[in-house]
């Protein structure tokens, strides 16, 4: 198990002057040109910005999927910027929760098995508590009746909820979500956002990338990137958040 | 443990996604493994039969046969005697010290008759040792004895088929059979059990068949029939003057066989001969058979290796396609914490399951070789009775004999093939960066 060192302020992560360059044959793409910000535990951050501004690149870095060119990324007292491929994989299986735009469930596995994948790669046999927890997570996202279903038997919203349950199974530092509602209609998107809100209230840290202002207004804080740099970082007031939630409910398309 | 079991479980699930594809891949290995076992079993069956036939001649024996000399050596007028002489027999027995026993044989085609039943067969004049040397077993009565030989008794012993054909209803013992060509009667004193054929000797390709033999004391033959044998065919008269057709020597020690054979050849060729004898050494024959068998084995193994190689390439092909097709899944797994090692293990597990499945089913089918061959022969005998009779004897009597090493070997090779041809796709899968893999559509 990874040693968890937390300093007094309890940050879920700290990003210090993070840079990422892609060296191509003809040119060097500077996707991140030095980004710094902290995410305290229990925060709910929306990352915004125009296409190509480096949002996904930043999120991949936070999710230990890729190594920065320079800078530091502190997760639980460790600088993951210095880690190798195997160490990163270990952190991913133990302390990262990922939610993708296209759900990314594994087709040949059932709902329960999909939720357990990160545990599988921790390399130890599943304990009875872990099995119990998997089922509880499935119930929590409203799929208690569909434990043995395969992804193809589920709707997009249901698949995304499985993905959220999966992202929670290893008790992660934070949930990273790259446009989690991008493929969903507004009603299903709302379900997912409400689920995120509930998780945040329960204390989970959430970092999501979105293009939609309405989605970003639901977060506690909005970080905006432009050309690989942090453009601004502001906090949403409770009023803004409540209004956005109310607006979403009011404008829900009427069921026919 | 969880990881291993989970990985195997997972690979079966993944393979199950494309049942037909997996089945066809398994088929490649299956055919390879089954063909190794079958080919080796059949070649061993044939080889064992050949070895058995030669061995039944006896590894400690040397046979000297009379062969018909080339026609230009025979005088065109009158009959020229040729072949082994009784004097030579005596000379060998007296001068070669390594000889334990010597067996003179005179044989000829004759017709045998009992009542109105006639049969063409081989009349063999021999001494009592003949039964032991050629492994003849008695069904009833006794074989020729020394007393009968010295007394020139007109006694005979019938081979199984002769007894069966001439005496379908009667007990042959105590009856007299008639040789119309010599106008002689012989009293039946013994009947033999059926006997398998032995290897061909003396330049003839066909295996020796003992089923249509009638044995009489050699001295009786010399006395009653003599050395000159005339056979009258429509339009021509043929004759031969031969004292002995064969001398079978047995040596005291198998180690002396070759040496003795050389000595015998030298002794017999000391005077000018007309290429009228052949010396057959079963031990040498046996070595030849073994060499042939080895070559056949190498050939078989080569064919089998090629089919296993093809099966392996099939696996690699499928796995490469699978890796490409499942790039997305690889990305997901990597994102969720799978190390490179895990991905390699997963794909290797899949190829191993494929090649193991092929290997195990191939072995099971390989074990069915014997029963299948017998069944096929039974069916062929039932429906194509006549055609089957024309096939060579090996085909008719072939008994495949499974070589245990071939099972172990084929199994090991199938696993190795799976691993070797699976490792490249697996490494390719693991090399991908998680992000690129995730982006893959
Ligand atoms: N593997 C890569 N190789 C080269 N360039 C890359 C690579 N990945 C990203 N980039 C470049 O880095 C920049 C940032 O890309 P990124 O995917 O982070 O943008 P984004 O903000 O997520 O955009 P979008 O909103 O369209 O998803 C882009 O210019 C992109 O072309
Ligand atoms: Mg993006």
Task: Give a description of the structure.
The complex is a heterodimer of chains A (256) and B (441). Chain A is 34% helix and 25% strand. Chain A is α/β, with parallel strands linked by helices and 256 residues long. Chain A has a single domain (35-65, 83-250), classed as P-loop containing nucleotide triphosphate hydrolases (Rossmann fold, 3-Layer(aba) Sandwich). In chain A, the strands form two sheets. Chain A has a six-stranded mixed sheet, with helices on both faces. Chain A has a four-stranded antiparallel sheet with strand order 2-1-4-5, covered by helices on one side. In chain A, a hairpin with a 4-residue loop joins strand 1 (11-23) and strand 2. The radius of gyration of chain A is 18 Å and the shape is globular. The N and C termini of chain A lie far apart (51 Å). Residues 1-8 of chain A have low confidence and may be disordered. Chain B contains 16 helices and twelve strands. Chain B has helices at 2-16, 19-57, 86-95, 129-133, 146-150, 160-166, 218-224, 257-268, 282-325, 327-335, 340-367, 369-383, 385-390, 393-397, 404-431, 434-439, and strands at residues 61-66, 99-114, 117-126, 138-141, 155-158, 176-179, 184-192, 213-217, 228-233, 236-241, 246-251, 277-280. In chain B, a hairpin with a 2-residue loop joins strand 2 and strand 3. The two termini of chain B are 33 Å apart. Residues 55-56 of chain A line the site of magnesium ion.
CATH topological fold name of chain A = Rossmann fold
Major sheet summary line of chain A? 6 strands, mixed
Count all strands of chain A and give the number: 10
How would you write the strand order of the largest sheet of chain A?
6-7-8-3-9-10
Helix share bin of chain B: 40-55%
Calculate Rg of chain B over CA atoms.
33 Å
The best one-word shape of chain B is elongated
Roughly how much helix do the residues of chain A carry, as a percent range?
25-40%
- Strand composition percent of chain B: 15-25%
Low-confidence stretches of chain A: 1-8
CATH architecture identity of chain A: 3-Layer(aba) Sandwich
The distinct ligands, each listed once, are: adenosine-5'-triphosphate, magnesium ion
Euclidean distance between termini CA atoms of chain B: 33 Å
Q: Strand fraction band of chain A?
A: 25-35%
Assigned CATH class of chain A: Alpha Beta
Strand and helix order of chain B: HHEHEEHEHEHEEEHEEEHEHHHHHHHH
The largest contact between protein chains, plus residue counts on each side, is: A-B, 31 and 27 residues
What multimeric state do the chains show?
heterodimer
């Amino acid at each position: 198990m990874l040693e968890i060192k937390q300093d007094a302020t309890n940050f879920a992560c700290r990003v210090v002057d993070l840079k990422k360059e892609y060296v191509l044959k003809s040119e060097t793409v500077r996707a991140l040109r030095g980004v710094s910000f902290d995410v305290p535990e229990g925060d709910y951050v929306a990352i915004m910005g125009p296409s190509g501004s480096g949002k996904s690149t930043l999120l991949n870095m936070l999710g230990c999927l890729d190594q920065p060119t320079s800078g530091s990324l502190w997760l639980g007292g460790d600088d993951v910027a210095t880690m190798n491929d195997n160490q990163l994989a270990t952190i991913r299986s133990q302390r990262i929760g990922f939610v993708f735009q296209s759900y990314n469930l594994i087709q040949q596995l059932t709902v329960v098995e999909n939720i357990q994948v990160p545990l599988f790669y921790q390399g130890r046999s599943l304990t009875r508590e872990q099995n119990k927890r998997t089922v509880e997570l499935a119930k929590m996202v409203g799929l208690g009746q569909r434990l043995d279903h395969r992804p193809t038997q589920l709707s997009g919203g249901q698949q995304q909820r499985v993905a959220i349950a999966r992202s929670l199974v290893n008790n992660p530092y934070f949930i990273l979500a790259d446009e989690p509602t991008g493929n969903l209609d507004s009603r299903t998107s709302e379900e997912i956002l409400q689920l995120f809100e509930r998780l945040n209230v329960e204390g989970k840290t959430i970092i999501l990338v979105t293009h939609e202002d309405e989605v970003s207004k639901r977060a506690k804080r909005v970080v905006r990137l432009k050309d690989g740099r942090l453009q601004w970082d502001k906090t949403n007031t409770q009023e803004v958040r409540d209004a956005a939630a109310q607006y979403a409910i009011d404008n829900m398309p009427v069921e026919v | 443990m969880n990881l291993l079991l989970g990985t195997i479980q997972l690979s079966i699930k993944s393979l199950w996604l494309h049942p037909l594809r997996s089945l066809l891949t398994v088929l490649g290995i299956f055919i390879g493994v089954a063909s190794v076992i079958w080919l080796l079993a059949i070649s061993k069956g044939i080889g064992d039969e050949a070895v058995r036939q030669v061995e039944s001649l006896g590894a400690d024996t040397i046979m000297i046969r009379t062969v018909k000399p080339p026609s230009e050596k025979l005088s065109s007028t009158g009959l020229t005697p040729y072949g082994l002489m009784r004097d030579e027999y005596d000379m060998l027995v007296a001068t070669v010290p390594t000889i334990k026993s010597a067996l003179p044989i005179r044989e000829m085609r004759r017709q045998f008759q009992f009542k109105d039943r006639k049969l063409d067969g081989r009349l063999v004049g021999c001494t009592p040792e003949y039964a032991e040397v050629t492994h003849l077993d008695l069904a009833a009565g006794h074989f020729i004895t020394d007393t009968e030989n010295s007394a020139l008794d007109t006694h005979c012993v019938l081979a199984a088929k002769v007894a069966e054909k001439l005496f379908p209803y009667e007990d042959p013992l105590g009856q007299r059979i008639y040789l119309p060509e010599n106008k002689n009667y012989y009293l039946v004193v013994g009947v033999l059990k059926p006997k398998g054929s032995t290897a061909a000797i003396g330049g003839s390709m066909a295996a020796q068949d003992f089923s249509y033999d009638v044995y009489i004391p050699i001295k009786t033959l010399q006395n009653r029939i003599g050395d000159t044998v005339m056979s009258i065919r429509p339009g021509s008269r043929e004759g031969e003057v031969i004292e002995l057709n064969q001398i079978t020597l047995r040596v005291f020690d198998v180690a002396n066989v070759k040496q003795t054979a050389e000595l015998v050849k030298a002794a017999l060729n000391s005077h000018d001969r007309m290429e009228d004898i052949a010396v057959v050494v079963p031990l040498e024959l046996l070595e030849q058979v073994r060499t042939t068998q080895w070559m056949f084995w190498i050939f078989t193994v080569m064919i089998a290796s090629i089919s296993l190689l093809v099966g392996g390439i099939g696996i690699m092909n499928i796995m490469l396609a699978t890796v490409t097709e499942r790039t997305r899944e690889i990305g997901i797994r990597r994102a969720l914490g799978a190390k490179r090692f895990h991905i390699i293990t997963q794909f290797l597990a899949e190829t191993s399951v494929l090649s193991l499945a092929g290997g195990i089913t191939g072995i099971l089918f390989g074990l069915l070789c014997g029963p299948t061959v017998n069944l096929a022969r039974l069916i062929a005998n039932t429906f194509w009775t006549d055609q089957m009779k024309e096939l060579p004897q090996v085909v008719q009597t072939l008994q495949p004999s499974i070589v245990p090493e071939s099972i172990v070997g084929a199994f090991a090779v199938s696993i190795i093939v799976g691993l070797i041809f699976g490792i490249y796709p697996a490494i390719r899968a693991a090399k991908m960066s998680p992000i690129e893999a995730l982006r893959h559509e």
